Task: structure prediction
Amino acid sequence: MSLLQKTRSLYGRFERPISSASLIFGFIFDAVTLKRLDTLWENIWILAHIIIVGVFISLINLKESKKGDEANPHKAHFWYVNLLQFFFGGILSAFLVFYFRSTDIWSTWPFLFILTIAFIANESLKRHYIRQSFQISLFFLSIYSFMIFLIPILLHKIGPFVFLLSGFLSLVIIITFSIFLFRFKKGEFIESRNLTLFFISGIFILFNILYFTNTIPPIPLSLKEAGIYHSVVRNSNGNYDVTYENHEWIEYLKLYPEFEKEVGAPVYAYSAIFSPRDLNLTIIHEWQYYDEAKSKWITEGLVNLNVIGGRDGGFRTYSMRSDLVAGKWRVNIKTKQGQNIGHLRFRIIPVDIAPELVSDTKE
Result:
């Protein structure tokens, strides 16, 4: 038996653990190496995966195969299915990394949950890769997720029109690809047409519902750093000097860390927002307190702040309030369209003596 044959047999025996390990390694690799959405390398990396996925979907559907070939490591069909699964995993792991970085998970968990389920399903539902409807539906999900952040980068804009354009272009691509398959595999395509149409329509409608309910992360924006401080001052070097209370580590695990405040003393909300190069926009700091009697959040102030795109560490800016009452507060950092970029939560504790503060510089 040749070395190639031994390798094929060995992979066939340990296919599941090897596949799982490569998927986990790929996710870690993406988390470490993928940095900025607006760089050429990141977009080429994802686009290459999408093109390769399209190639292997075509090979699986255009090449004749027999039942069971997808489980036989000595058949080409086996490797087509496995490579398709591998590159789908690479795409979905990159999306998970980018979308997770872009938002506060408490606001947009349903969308991240969908991507996570797709990532897990990619590993667990291998037998469905021989089904054309499953392949094309997951391919459309990948294309749509890519277009959501690629089009704003190219147009230097975000908003409903840009999102709708992303969806339209995704539909054009998947329809063109489906027509290509239809020309060579009319019989199989007709059999799976209704199911494929149902899945693609469902994904398209669901994505639009999630967007217009502000559940999709405002990608390509991301919150690089944020905090609540006793003072924020821009120094002569263009950096920001901040002061804050030196809490015990356990305090930072609380959902609403305590903020000791004298009467009339200011409270500063600092945020560093990453936006791609040439994508300049206005964000909002929405100051809210929790009314215990009414059991709801009350908006006390809205502050518009300009963000200039391109800075690797995010564009730094802040807002300030000095009339905050005791109790739970939060500052929602959002786009003008209402998409949540992040939240700052804290609890005001009135004190008569100013707390001991420490200083830091935000570069």
Observations:
- The longest strand covers residues 296-307.
- The first helix runs from residue 3 to 13.
- Residues 156 and 279 are 4 Å apart (CA to CA).
- The two ends are 61 Å apart (CA to CA).
